[in-house]
Amino acid sequence: MQRYKGTRELNYRVLSNGNKIPPIGYGTDIAKTWRSANSFPTKTYMFIKQYAKSIKNSDKRSIKIDKTLPRIIRNAPQCNCNLFDTARAYGGSEYVLGRELKKNFSRDSYYIVTKLSNFDQRERTVEEALRISLDELALDYVDLYLIHWPQTETYIKSWKGMEEVYAKGLCKAIGVCNCNIHHLEAIKKGALINPMVNQFECHPLFTQEKLREYCHINGIQVMAYTPTGRMDFRLKRSKKLEIISSKYNKSLAQIILRWHIQINNIPIVNTTSLEHLIDNMNIFDFELSAEDVKLISSLNVNSRLRYDPDNCDFDRL
Ligand SMILES: NC(=O)c1ccc[n+]([C@@H]2O[C@H](COP(=O)([O-])OP(=O)(O)OC[C@H]3O[C@@H](n4cnc5c(N)ncnc54)[C@H](OP(=O)(O)O)[C@@H]3O)[C@@H](O)[C@H]2O)c1
């Protein structure tokens, strides 16, 4: 299995603890597909039920599986994809991901990110929650463990637990998601270890300049979720992007993902299509000019597409 092509390997990032991390990953939030499960063909429905049955530790009410995920995972390494982002809150995605990877690939050939859910922050210790994830994933450790949301009452205490599971070797790196500067400053006050990664929403319509700058100054790698802005119509219809796309002879998604690479983000992109996965991962054979990077950044209209961590109901996430 060939994992690296072109200059992808040269684009690996280094975390503050010295560990390397791939420059782009695949997001396995399949919850949205489950919501349309009523329209799945019978065969798919049977598949979902079969997987759901075999899950022992999960809360069965929240199991959300579709047939796309196993197919994508099986084919991901050939498509140059070896970083997978999952979470306790993504239904059965940890289970499917872990089983499919274990069946087909050696542990050192892939990088796994999972997250501490809001429910677990309230109801369990961080170690208990991570051990459930490890069980679901059928792994001894994850490469990166993140706090999913800075839940007001719990995230500072949770960070202590994150430091403990890191010290025990249950994860190779620790970080957070959805943290704004004030959350990161609050964590830093009582921390022995600063978060190594902050995963948050970032795309050309919502570039988060200040937060990205803060992270880079403080040695925190930026992981961008919803990196293509879910291919929002404002991006699809952008004349500027269309011109850049034909100039480099690359698809719109490739141009946006390459922009992430050049502004030092690690984009986590989801797709249900193998064709798109191939496109998305193969963005290391061209380089955008500094001018074009600037032009893409100038599309920013501060348009958040997902939840605002300073204004959301953590119980529902
Ligand atoms: N930490 C957090 O709180 C958090 C929150 C949200 C998301 N995430 C992570 O980020 C991941 C991605 O986020 P997302 O799904 O919101 O946004 P996204 O990856 O920007 O958008 C996915 C959408 O873009 C389309 N797409 C992808 N590649 C394409 C291509 N080459 N050409 C055309 N369309 C393409 C997909 O359609 P097709 O299926 O047709 O390709 C899909 O509808 C999630 O799976 C999750 O792992 C984390």
TrEMBL record:
UniProt cross-references to Pfam families, sorted A to Z: Aldo_ket_red (PF00248)
* Residues the UniProt record annotates as site (Lowers pKa of active site Tyr): 115
Q: Which domain of life is it from?
A: Bacteria
Catalytic-site annotation from UniProt: 90 (proton donor)
- GO terms, molecular function: oxidoreductase activity
List the InterPro entries hit by this protein, alphabetically: AKR, NAD(P)_OxRdtase_dom_sf, NADP_OxRdtase_dom
- Positions bound to substrate: 148
Q: Which Gene3D superfamilies match?
A: NADP-dependent oxidoreductase domain
| The NADP-dependent oxidoreductase domain, residue ranges | 71-300
Protein name as it appears in the record: Aldo/keto reductase
Instruction: Name its species.
Output: Aminipila luticellarii
